[in-house]
Each structure stands twice: as structure tokens, then as C-alpha cells.
């Protein structure tokens, strides 16, 4: 027997309670006077105690009850070793393409079925399939999860050590950024792709691109680069502050990546976005220098808070040393490790205003040193509605395929070599039942004992 929380066994010290109760449970004696000696007067009283356990069965039941309660707190389990077997093997294939897969791989599937393999839909729930499902085609059922997420989910249903044959095309797109570790043996059988060339139009950073994709690569070509207007940026900072240089470096990186020309503090026209890097309130002149429907990024004053935390950005953490308390109830864009607002956004009739509760300064945070700084500023400067990442790799029409080396790595990472697998079997339920039965028996004995004492 093993315990998940061994510290729960400290509750066994509670056995001392019934021990004390039974050792000191001494009955009071009665004095009976007889007529012939009643006239002799009062004699000095004397008493005696015998420290011993009078009811061993009741004592054992109470101690056993405390032992079982301690075991429940420690959550016991048994380790069970099972041998891997092909009898519980699976065939994974998407239901909507199963008829086509069966036509081209009928011999392989029939052979696996004779060995006891089960066919399951490669989708959420992994519903069983039969050969009747090959008689008709269903409409496309879109997977709500990518391949790695479905592989991990299937790990909860498939017997550890079982073999799984996976029929799917070998396009790179459905695979996420991480290959999970599972407890079954995966054999991936790629399908022949009917369409190996595709193209589509993508929009990013205000520019349109034509994408051409084939099994080896995907290429993007700008369509209207000459028609895109430059981005005008206004920056204001107080003398003695050096935050401006970090911002300008990030703006130049955005300009280089997107191909959009960025004009800083140009006098010819109103700015598309203004950065107010000052502790003073935003001046009316600076606000009026921003074009209607433009953006204003401003430092916010408030109570200074010094704490070791971090800024959450795109699933990563950037060190945060100082911030100011948020005094605007607006949409949170960035937050720290405690959920406090670092950047919020609200919209007036004229501007989109970003309230920044820190500073673009290494003394306040390490954002300006992190590569995420450019990515985090991109949606503010460009104004994209969905600026989750820089590319278009997740387009469903992407035809790039997994290389043979990558395919081998995927299968190795999802294969276990051991023939035996250890499983943990909780036994808490059995202990709960035993504790209940002992409790009932203890109550019955205790009640009978009290009844006998009253009769006597």
C-alpha cells in the first residue's frame, strides 16, 4: 500500500484519545450503612482506583476508526502492473474521411480488425466507428482541437502500452508547437493528398498579401505595398527622461518588419498615434495633434507600488519591479502576476486611449529589453484587430507537409518501450465503507454499555 499524502498519517496520534478515556473511566463507588454499625460513627473515607481497560472490544473499535480516518487523509492507493497488449489497440481516423481511407487501406484495416482493434473517430469524444460508416460520406466535421491536444485527450481512453494506427494526411498545419508525451504506441500512416497547391489572400498590418503554398513551402507576396499610407507618430517626454529612445528603437523594428513607413514627430499632418511619456497630465495641444479615431498611449500617475511581479504577455512573463495603482475601470490589455492592470484601453468619441501603469524604463520593468516589446506594441501602432502573431502559418489552406525526420520524431515521442505499465488504483472508497461499518458497530456497543450501566 502506498500513500499520496503521507503527512496525513500524523493523525494516527489521535489514538491516544480513546486510550486516555478507557484508562481513566472509573466508576464512582457507593457507601452502604448497615444498622449494627451505624452507631459507631463516621469513619475516615478511603478510595482506590484501578488503571486498566475494562472494555477491550470498544477500545479496539475506536482505535481502528481513528486509524482508518488517518488513512483516508493520506489517500492510499495500490500499484498495479499490467502488461501491454494489442487487444485494446485503436484505429484513429476522422469520420468524414473514413470511406476514402477504407478504400485505399482496406487490407490494412481488415487485418487490424481481425486482431481486435477498435475504430474511433479522431475528434472530441473519440466515438466508435464501424464498417457501416464507410457506406456514406458525411459533411466535414471540423476538429475543435489540434492534433497534439487530441493525442493527449486520447491518452485518457486508450490502454497504456496499446498500439494505435493513425490515418491522416501529413500536412504540417494541424500540429501545434509542442508534441505531447502519451502512454500508447503510435503508428502514423499518411494519406495521399489530392490537392497539393493552394493560394489565398491575407491581410496584415494594413497590407494585402497573396499566399502560394505547396508541400515544401508557403510564400507571401505583397499586393498593394505602394498604396499603404505611412504611420505618423507623435512622442512627448519631459527633459531628463530617457524612455523615448527605447520606444523609437521598437518603432524602427516594427517599420522594418511590416514595411510600413513610420514618421516620428512629423509636422506636416496629424499623428495616427501619440505617446505621452510624462508624469504630467496630457496637454490639450498634444491631444489635438492626434487624428480622429487615432490612439493615445499615456503614462498614468497614482500611488507607487513596489513589488516583485511580472507582466503577462502572450503566455510569457516579463519581470516587473514598479507600477502605479490603476484608477480607470477599462478593458485590461496587460496585467501583472496578481491580476492588477498594467495597460488598459478605453475609447472616447475621438480617440482610443491606452493607460499605462508603469514606465518604458528598465528601472520599472524589463519590457524594453525583451523581444516581446515589439510584438506587444504592434497592435497599438498598426491597429490590427487580431494581431495574435506575426505570420499566417495557421491558415487552413497551408499545404506544407511534415518531413520524414519530423515524422520519425513524432512517432518516437509518442511511443513507450516498456512491456509493463504501472497504474495507481485508489482504495479510498473501500476504507470509507469500512470506517462507516466500524462507526456503526462502535455506536451500538457504546449504547448497550450505557444501558447496562443504568440497569445496574
Automatic annotation (TrEMBL):
Residues annotated as domain Aerotolerance regulator N-terminal: 1-76
Protein name: BatA domain-containing protein
The keyword Transmembrane helix appears for this protein: yes
Organism encoding this protein: Pedobacter vanadiisoli
Record keywords, A-Z: Membrane, Transmembrane, Transmembrane helix
InterPro entries on file: Aerotolerance_reg_N, Double_TM_dom
Membrane-spanning segments: 6-24, 56-78, 427-445
Record lineage: Bacteria, Pseudomonadati, Bacteroidota, Sphingobacteriia, Sphingobacteriales
Amino acid at each position: 500500500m502506498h500513500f499520496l499524502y503521507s503527512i496525513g498519517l500524523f493523525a494516527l496520534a489521535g489514538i491516544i484519545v480513546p486510550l486516555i478515556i478507557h484508562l481513566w473511566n472509573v466508576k464512582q463507588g457507593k457507601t452502604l450503612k448497615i444498622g449494627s454499625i451505624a452507631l459507631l460513627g463516621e469513619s475516615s473515607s478511603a478510595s482506590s482506583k484501578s488503571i486498566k481497560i475494562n472494555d477491550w472490544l470498544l477500545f479496539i473499535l475506536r482505535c481502528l476508526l481513528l486509524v482508518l480516518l488517518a488513512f483516508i487523509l493520506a489517500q492510499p492507493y495500490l500499484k498495479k502492473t499490467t502488461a501491454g497488449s494489442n487487444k485494446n489497440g485503436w484505429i484513429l481516423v476522422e469520420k468524414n474521411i473514413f470511406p476514402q481511407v477504407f478504400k485505399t487501406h482496406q487490407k490494412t484495416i481488415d487485418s487490424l480488425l481481425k486482431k481486435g482493434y477498435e475504430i474511433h473517430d479522431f475528434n472530441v469524444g473519440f466515438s466508435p466507428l464501424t464498417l457501416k460508416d464507410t457506406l456514406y460520406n458525411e459533411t466535414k466535421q471540423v476538429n475543435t482541437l489540434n492534433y497534439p491536444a487530441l493525442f493527449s485527450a486520447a491518452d485518457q481512453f486508450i490502454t497504456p502500452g496499446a498500439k494505435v494506427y493513425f490515418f491522416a494526411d501529413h500536412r504540417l498545419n494541424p500540429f501545434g508547437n509542442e508534441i505531447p508525451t502519451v502512454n500508447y504506441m503510435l503508428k502514423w500512416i499518411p494519406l495521399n493528398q489530392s490537392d497539393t497547391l493552394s493560394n489565398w489572400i491575407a491581410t496584415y498590418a494594413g497590407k494585402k498579401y497573396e499566399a502560394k503554398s505547396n508541400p515544401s513551402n508557403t510564400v507571401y507576396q505583397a499586393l498593394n505595398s505602394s498604396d499603404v499610407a505611412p504611420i505618423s507618430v507623435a512622442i512627448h517626454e519631459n527633459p531628463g527622461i530617457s524612455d523615448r529612445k527605447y520606444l523609437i528603437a521598437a518603432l524602427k523594428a516594427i517599420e522594418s518588419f511590416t514595411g510600413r513607413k513610420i514618421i516620428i514627430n512629423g509636422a506636416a499632418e496629424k499623428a495616427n498615434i501619440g505617446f505621452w511619456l510624462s508624469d504630467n497630465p496630457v496637454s490639450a495641444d498634444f491631444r489635438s495633434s492626434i487624428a480622429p479615431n487615432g490612439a493615445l498611449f499615456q503614462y498614468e500617475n497614482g500611488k507607487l507600488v513596489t513589488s516583485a511581479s511580472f507582466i503577462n504577455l502572450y503566455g510569457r512573463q516579463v519581470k516587473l519591479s514598479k507600477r502605479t495603482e490603476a484608477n480607470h475601470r477599462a478593458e485590461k490589455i496587460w496585467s501583472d502576476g496578481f491580476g492588477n492592470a498594467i495597460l488598459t484601453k478605453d475609447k472616447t468619441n475621438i480617440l482610443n486611449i491606452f493607460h499605462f501603469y508603469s514606465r518604458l524604463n528598465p528601472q520599472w520593468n524589463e519590457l524594453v529589453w525583451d523581444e516581446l516589446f515589439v510584438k506587444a506594441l504592434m497592435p497599438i501602432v498598426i491597429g490590427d484587430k487580431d494581431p495574435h502573431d506575426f505570420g499566417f502559418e495557421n491558415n487552413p489552406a497551408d499545404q506544407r507537409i511534415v518531413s520524414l525526420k519530423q515524422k520519425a520524431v513524432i512517432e518516437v515521442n509518442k511511443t513507450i518501450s516498456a512491456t509493463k505499465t504501472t497504474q495507481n488504483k485508489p482504495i479510498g472508497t473501500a476504507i470509507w465503507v469500512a470506517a462507516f461499518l466500524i462507526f456503526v458497530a462502535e455506536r451500538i456497543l457504546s449504547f448497550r454499555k450505557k444501558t447496562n450501566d443504568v440497569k445496574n
